Amino acid sequence: MENANQHFREKVRWRWLEIAFWLCTLLPFVVTPNYLSLASQIAITALFALSLDLILGYAGIVSLGHAAFFGVGAYSAGLLAKHYWGEPLAGLLLAAIFSGVVGYAMSHIIVRFRHLALIMLTLGLGLLLHEAANSASGLTGGADGLQGVRVGTLFGFKFDMFGRTAYAYSLAVLFICFLVARRIIHSPFGLALRGIRENATRMPAIGAPSRAHLRKAYTIAAVIAGIAGALLTHTTSTVSLEVLSFQRSADVLVILILGGAGRLYGGIIGAIIYMVARDQFSGINPQYWYFWIGLLLVAVVMFLPNGILGGLARFFPRKT
Amino acid sequence: MLSSLATVLFDGFAYGMLLFLLSVGLSVTLGMMNFVNLAHCSFAMVGGYATVTLVNSFGWPFLASLPIAFIVAALVSILLERTLYKRLYRASDLDQCLLTIGIVFVSVAAFAWLYTSEQQSARPPEWLRGRIDLFGVNFAAYRLFLIVFGLAVTGLLILLLERTRFGAKVRAAVDNQRMARGLGIDVDRAFMLTFALGGGLAGLGGALAIEVVGLDPSFALAYLVYVLIVVAVGGLGSIGGSFAAAVVLGISDMAGKYYFPWLGAFLIYLVMVALLMWRPAGLFGKR
């Protein structure tokens, strides 16, 4: 028992590199104040990738429709701000609740399947939601997007065009969610998830109910993805149908794989590299951008199966 | 009412034949190797663009370009199979998914660059463009051609799989890959040939689809869902299952567009999700 406690305590301990990393995330305020809105987009994407990492990297649920929860969060925050209440934190809460409910409902379906059926179900459910939002244009604005979202002030700070508030807000939410995810991963529950990823039929034999655990993990991931969606609504004051698209699900998958799935910082590193690269190459047609993304995906799968962080870890073996 | 029903059934059946050609290769290769090939519709696109190029730039007749579409798509699929797919047969679903999504992205961008993202067309000969009166109902000649062509291909495929030595090997590999290897069947070779055949048939489907649904670089993603539905419903590795599933899907999609246009693609996705939940191995699947 003492050994297990020691194991978890050792894992939870903050490392210098981590502290340095989070201090570096404050740098954009001073060094690149013109890129703060990009920085807030990166933080949001990183949060979205983190949520996918929980189910894909740790629990082993392959999802091609994770944008569903991002979209539910974005639309619920947008609709609340448009019709009733512009205060952002209430929007975050509502988005978390809604996406959590949708995620919990879907989790009952998801955990029953594996392999191809699972991939296609996540794809199908994502497309279904996308099509539903497109059809319900009275509520969501359809293909034109949700117009007239008025986001109020956050503790008295307005969301301005320089993006100071937006970045501070996104970064703070990312950091809080990261702490939660870190705690979950380094808990017995997190360890059980990894066990289920490796062998879902054996885990119940040592007292870890696979399906109940997977349902929990899936719901938590949905909540975090919904929060990320709400952040996007608050920082851009609009919701487009694109938040639910297959492209977004595929993008976040690429980002996570690029950074390294099954690693806490994988999604964040992937988001930084992907978003900065896309910003730098924004001059080229988005269609051609996907050419390079496609090539990158092929290359990562072929030569760097654990992503960038996995590749780096091979050169710097951890001393324990 | 009755004539509109006949039109829906007829058009839906023709559409189903197209879907069958597009998806039968994926069904068989998935059944053999369990390889999640999301890039299958990219092979269809290769065939489609081969036909567009031959007809529009080189002045070939439409029908003569069809075999070339088949061959080009088959060659491209062999090339990819040998260089990329081969290494990932034992990899996880996720890796296979990612690799093939990467190929889809590359193909979409490459064709957009080569042919712009506008709709392409390739005119079929005059005698396929008119309408034919049959039993008092008016049918589009091209769709009749599609049905005859699709049925012929299905017959040939069934003959190939049921009556030849190659077919016996393929069926053995689909049923039990390890046992087939144990009996000395070269499963890798059989798979490569099946993969090429499936890619070629997809290319043929892509070429034939130009006249019905048009061709632009988003084809690879737009029809992926339909192909996956056919495979999922028909069950892996079953030609008869794919045929039935493609026909049912074609007719119900046509009927949905005709009678409930406001639902859009919603109905199709709903059917797919419901069927998968009910029978994850497909309606006619063995596993």
Write up what this structure looks like.
The complex is a heterodimer of chains A (320) and B (287). Chain A has helices at 2-12, 16-24, 27-30, 36-58, 67-83, 88-110, 115-135, 137-140, 164-185, 188-198, 210-236, 246-259, 266-280, 286-303, 307-315. With 320 residues, chain A is mostly helical. Chain A has one domain (2-246). In chain A, α4 (36-58) packs antiparallel against α11 (210-236), α5 packs across α11 and α9 (164-185) runs antiparallel to α11. Chain B is mostly helical and 287 residues long. Chain B has a single domain, classed as ABC transporter involved in vitamin B12 uptake, BtuC (Orthogonal Bundle), CATH 1.10.3470. In chain B, strands 1-2 form a two-stranded antiparallel ribbon. The mean pLDDT of chain B is 85. At the A-B interface, α7, α12 and α14 of A face α4, α10 and α12 of B.
SSE arrangement:
The complex is a heterodimer of chains A (320) and B (287).
Chain A: H1 2-12, H2 16-24, H3 27-30, H4 36-58, H5 67-83, H6 88-110, H7 115-135, H8 137-140, H9 164-185, H10 188-198, H11 210-236, H12 246-259, H13 266-280, H14 286-303, H15 307-315
Helix pairs in contact in A: 4-9, 4-11, 4-12, 4-13, 5-6, 5-11, 6-11, 9-11, 10-11, 12-13, 12-15
Chain B: H1 2-33, H2 40-57, H3 62-83, H4 93-115, E1 131-134, E2 137-140, H5 141-163, H6 165-175, H7 177-182, H8 187-213, H9 219-222, H10 224-234, H11 239-259, H12 266-278
Antiparallel strand pairs in B: 1-2
In short:
With 320 residues, chain A is mainly α. Chain A has helices at 2-12, 16-24, 27-30, 36-58, 67-83, 88-110, 115-135, 137-140, 164-185, 188-198, 210-236, 246-259, 266-280, 286-303, 307-315.
Kindly report the CATH topology of chain B: ABC transporter involved in vitamin B12 uptake, BtuC
Strand content of chain A: under 5%
Second-tier CATH architecture of chain B: Orthogonal Bundle
Number of domains of chain B: 1
Features of the shown structure:
heterodimer; A: 320 residues; 15 helices; 71% helix; globular; B: 287 residues; mainly alpha; ABC transporter involved in vitamin B12 uptake, BtuC; two-stranded antiparallel ribbon
